Amino acid sequence: MKDDFVMPILVLSLICLIFTCALAFTNSVTAPIIAQAALERENSARYELIPDADSFIPIEAEGLPSTIKEVYGTSNNVGYIFIVTGNGYGGEMRIICALDPNGTIMRSSVLQSSETKGLGSKVEDASFSDQFIGKSGQLEGVVAVSGATLSTNAYVGAIGDVFAAFEIIKGVS
Amino acid sequence: MKKLKTLTVGLIKENPVLVLVLGTCPTLAISTNAVNSLGMGIAASAVLLGSNIFISLLRNIIPDKVRIPCYIVVIASFVTLAEMVVEAFAYSLYQALGIYLPLIVVNCVILGRAEMFANKNGVVDSALDAIGMGAGFTLAIVAMASIREIFGSGTWFGMELPWLINNNISIFTMAPGGFIIYGCLIAWVNKISKGQAIKKKEFGCEDCPSAAACGKLAS
Amino acid sequence: MDFKLLITIMMSAVLVNNYVLRQFLGICPFLGVSKDLKNAAGMSIAVIFVMLMATAVTWPIQIKLLEPNGIGYLITIVFILVIAALVQLVETILKKYIPALYTALGVYLPLITTNCAVLGVTIANINESYTFIESMTNALGSGLGFFLAMVIFSGVRGQVESSKPPKSFEGLPITLVSAALISIAFYGFNGVIEGLFGK
Predict the structure, then answer these.
(1) Alpha-carbon distance B145 to A163, whole Å?
(2) Looking at residue C133, what is its pLDDT?
(3) pLDDT tens-digit profile, chain A (173 residues)
(4) C88 contact B CB<8A
């Protein structure tokens, strides 16, 4: 009777313990690789937009629009990087946008999205995102991707939030 | 000869996706493009191989009472292991699979094989069964993804296909397309096997091969 | 507390990102238990119940216990065990103290542990870095979305059962194809959230 109760618990706990240890070991091996890769990925995306930057400094500010996920300034003050999200047709889009110190768009691109292939996914093409280069504050004259109003609106809205955020952080830094 | 049969039975005759109709969630969700499906297939097969081997090794030690919780611990550990490896070495796949990667743990193919096969057979047989079933799962999900990607996006494994790229039918890659293609594939298997192959006539829990494992979990 | 955000999360979980029809989580019970309205409703209520319970338990475990101690990577293994134990606990308690509810939901409870929608919603809450209140809202919304999909689909199933499809489509295939049609209908909700509440 006693064996019926003790043994199962003992074996289950033992298996839990052994496998948890194995996982802890694997984690200690893979965690640095993951962290390193993540850093490189972020850096490469940022340097691609502002190649002249020395290094990027995270900026924290109160009252930013909720869609703004991350903001970075540059140590040699050549521009700002904004990571912003928008709600497209296929869910959340993650967009990266670089502004120069005057608030003019240097470049923007989609980091991650799940828009419909062939329609909404065209907001990821340079032909769409290049329209934004040089604009500041006003987004008139952006030609929507035909058949993908939602994706276009999500992108335009996200860039609008970037301008709003820029107005806030301009005073801070 | 028997070993060979153990290996190949999962590939066609008892294909987990198309014949046993297990693991439907990842099949439908990930099969929008062939590369990710191949990744999903390999990840799930690796988990299946690991868990089958360990459960077969431990089958005489694990008390019957806590059998299912033990399986879950073993499977979840291998899933976590797979998560770490994929995140470290194949980040784009990690992002593409998203929540479906940890959810391999509730993929009924894996728990089903643990309860139905590894629990009763030796290590070598269990490993062969896992390889066969894993290959069957991968084959089915990649086949389905190929259909959806070729017609839905006009690409195959990311390669652009002439003409189709400009004449893609978006619904194939959208959620409804998944249901339709899966339904048609099963209908096709029904047709070529003259209704003999599919084990489940209805999608009910009564005749699901995993029902035993599923139902016993909490009882 | 941002009330608008909560409504947005809720609406999004119920209509736009419906777990069953858009994200393919919980397909097994969706196709398996949707044959008649009574079972479909019973199963869905059990799922809503477990989703809320599971979120209420797993969120604090991950945020207060695992992550501060640097073992956040145990999320999958801990969550599935917690859900399994929770379902068992709920079953025992219901059986003993609320037999009426047990007779209504008892049959479905064991099936819920391997329902990927439940594990899915708990992990998604962590991935989306929702607060506790947001997580609970998301869990409720996902549960209601499951309920909605199940109830609608059980109605459709009734019609499909009485029709006569081509021979090779009988049974499972025609069920999947009709699920596709419901899924198309849900695509109509795209953009509703932004339209109603702004971004």
Answers:
(1) 40
(2) 92
(3) 456 778 888 888 888 888 889 888 988 888 888 888 888 887 788 888 888 888 888 888 777 888 888 888 888 888 888 888 888 776 778 888 888 888 888 888 888 777 776 677 788 888 888 888 888 777 777 788 777 788 888 888 888 888 888 888 876 55
(4) yes
Say whether residue A89 is in contact with chain C using an 8 A CB cutoff: yes
Q: What is the pTM of this model?
A: 0.81
> Taking a C-beta distance cutoff of 8 angstroms, is the pair A55, B110 a contact?
no
C174, B183: Cβ pair inside 8 Å? yes
Nearest chain A residue to B32, by CA: A117
Query: Which of the residues in chain B have pLDDT under 70?
Result: 1, 195-219
Q: What is the pLDDT of residue B78?
A: 94
Residues B91 and B89: their CA atoms lie apart, in Å, by 6
- Per the structure block, which two tokens stand in for C84? 């399994």
Question: Within this chain, do residues A44 and A68 fall inside the same structural domain, yes or no?
Answer: no
* DSSP helix/strand/coil, B122: coil
* Sign of the alpha-carbon dihedral angle for C138, C142, C143, C148: positive
pLDDT digits (tens, 9 = 90+) for B87-112: 888 888 988 888 899 999 888 888 88
Amino acid occupying residue A70: E
Provide the residue ranges of all domains of chain C, joining segments of one domain with +: 26-187
- Which residues, in sequence order, are CB contacts of B174 under 8 Å at separation 6+? A116, B152, C187
- A92 with A165, same domain: the answer is yes
**Pairwise CA distance, residues B208 & B56, whole Å:** 23
Backbone angles phi, psi at C156, to 5 degrees: -65, -40
Phi, psi of A156 (to 5 degrees): -60, -45
Residue B219 has a pLDDT of 35
3 state SS of A105: strand
ipTM of the complex: 0.85
Which residue in chain C is spatially nearest to A85 when comparing CA positions? C199
**Whether residues A62 and A141 fall in one domain:** yes
Return the residue in C5, C17, C81, C199 with the most chain A beta carbons within 10 A, the one to mutate for interface testing: C199
Q: Is residue A165 located within the same domain as residue A116?
A: yes
Span between the terminal Cα atoms of chain A, in Å: 72
* A78 shares its domain with A158: yes
The residue-averaged pLDDT of C90-97 equals: 85
Q: Is B95 on the interface with A (CB under 8 A)?
A: yes
Angle CA B3–B6–B10, to nearest 5: 155
Token digits for B6? 């153990």
**Domain co-membership, A14 together with A60:** no
**Chain B hits for A111, Cβ within 8 Å:** none
Beta carbons of B190 and C169 less than 8 Å apart: yes
Instruction: Looking at the structure, tell me whether residues A140 and A83 fall in a common domain.
Output: yes
> Domain span at residue A81?
56-172
- Judge if A5 and A61 occupy the same domain: no
Contact A86, A118 (CB under 8 A): no
Position B111 scores a pLDDT of 85
- Take residue C133 and report the two structure tokens written for it: 């209140």
